[in-house]
Design a protein that fits this description.
three-stranded antiparallel sheet; binds zinc ion; 339 residues; 12 helices
């Protein structure tokens, strides 16, 4: 009988259960009333008196160990079941912020899309430029204040290498390489030596448009301006043109749109005039065409340029220019819907 108990002890040590059914079978085999241990208990009655003590102890140990083993196996099975249940494949994923487009990118894209519908293609050029492409080719006088270090960042002293102050330099580069018809827009970052405040920054963004062909007139410019204004600010938008001066256009004008906040009635935003200024434009000065190798007797063209920050401020009422470059996610997340 001792041998049988020892064999069972060894057997119990290595028991395994992969399911509740396995476990139940083991329980029945060892611990039920008709199980191995119960039948040993029955046999125990016939054991000789002098062996009763030793065998009794062994038998109790066997019963205890069998019970313990079954309990351990049960616990293991339960743990495995709960960890499997935790993986719920039907559950939707955690909310995950994918980020938003920057408001300036949103507006830039919108402007580019409007011009694309008019047949304009995008042209790009370097941000570090030379004097010729930024000033001289564009008819800036030698003593023009824009050439002053007060206004322009010069990269190399005396070498006339500078950070472009407008994207018109890209127009020059295209005109030098291409004969009309030319129909391009130049979006990009520009730099001015300004003290940073809520209304001025040392860099900002522009989109300029250039159209050169035979018989391009101011009327073509005005139609384009009206179309762009209505597309950007709504079909009710009106425009007005005021005479102005730029070195590279003649005649030149600045364009106002009817205030999109008060609809032209007058409010603090438009300083009670009903109008807000949004861009500069004009007919390309014949000198600029000649500088770039285009015959001004055959071709004429118009150019216009606007600040993307300015347009974004008007569309979204952003009061402080600095917000555009501070990367504050609380500000940027407000543009999720527009992305
Ligand atoms: Zn207004």
């Amino acid at each position: 009988m001792i041998h049988k108990i020892d064999a069972l002890l060894a057997e119990i040590e290595h028991l395994k259960a992969n399911s509740n059914e396995d476990l139940e079978a083991l329980r029945i085999k060892y611990l039920s009333k008709k199980g191995e241990i119960s039948s040993l208990m029955d046999d125990f009655r016939t054991v000789a008196a002098e062996q009763k003590r030793e065998i009794g102890q062994k038998l109790n140990l066997l019963k205890m160990q069998a019970q313990e083993k079954i309990n351990t196996l049960k616990e293991q099975l339960e743990n495995r079941n709960t960890s499997e249940e935790m993986i719920d494949l039907t559950r939707t994923s955690y909310p995950y912020h994918v980020g938003t487009r920057h408001p300036l990118s949103i507006v830039k894209k919108e402007i580019c899309d409007i011009f694309a519908r008019l047949g304009f293609s995008i042209a790009e050029g370097p941000e570090i430029e030379d004097d010729w492409h930024v000033f001289s080719s564009l008819n800036f006088a030698a003593d023009h204040p824009a050439r002053d270090m007060q206004d322009t960042f010069f990269v190399m002293h005396g070498a006339d290498i500078l950070l472009r102050t407008h994207t018109s330099s890209v127009q020059t580069r295209v005109m030098e390489k291409t004969q009309p018809p030319i129909r391009i827009i130049c979006p990009g970052r520009v730099y001015r030596n300004e003290a940073i405040s809520y209304r001025a920054h040392c860099f900002f963004h522009q989109v300029e448009a250039l159209y050169i062909d035979k018989n391009v007139s101011f009327a073509d410019l005005k139609q384009t301006l009206l179309f762009v204004a209505k597309e950007l600010f709504g079909a009710e938008t009106k425009i007005r043109l005021r005479p102005s001066f730029f070195p590279f256009t003649e005649p030149s004008a600045e364009m106002d749109i009817s205030c999109n906040l008060c609809g032209g009635k007058g409010c603090p935003f438009c300083k009670y005039t009903g109008w807000v200024e949004i861009l500069g434009c004009g007919m390309v000065d014949p000198n600029v065409l000649e500088n770039c190798g285009i015959d001004s007797k055959i071709y004429s063209g118009y150019a216009l340029g606007m600040g993307i920050e300015r347009i974004t401020n008007l569309k979204y009422q952003v009061k402080d220019l600095r917000l555009f470059s501070e990367n504050d996610v609380r500000f940027l997340r407000q543009f999720e819907a527009a992305t």
